[in-house]
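Example record

One chain of 154 residues, shown exactly as stored in the release files.
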Amino acid sequence: MAYPEQPTALEVHHPIPITPATPHAAPLVPVQSGQVPAVQSIVLPDGRVVTGYTLTPAPTAPAPAPAPAAQPAVSRTAVNIALGGIGFAAVCGGLLLLTGFIAALAAFVQQLIILAAVIFGGFIAVQILGTSRGSGGTTFHIRKAVIKRNHFHG
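Predicted structure tokens for this chain:
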């Protein structure tokens, strides 16, 4: 790939001012109401002077009336409902844990009641079915008896 030839020396072009062959006077500009407009000159940093007529500022339009307060894209009621829904969703997890805790507590109490019934029932059974030591019951002494000809001999 060939590159274009690079110039060896830097060429500088100077503009040539156009001078009329015969100088003529500037055209007359009509001035309104007999006043000469003010001329202003500005000195640039490089020493050149720029001169021109000052411009009268155009009359400004009256300030626009303030715009009415911008309405939010979503009504406050909708925002409150949404926030309530988010709060409810956050509470639901806690409610689920609370119901689980209550169910576990109820099962524990039920097991305690069953255990108490078994222990109390066992105690009552021992009292009823236990051996009695002369507590007014009838005592039977069984001995070897002989039955002959349908008659008891004891």
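Notes: The chain has a mean pLDDT of 76.
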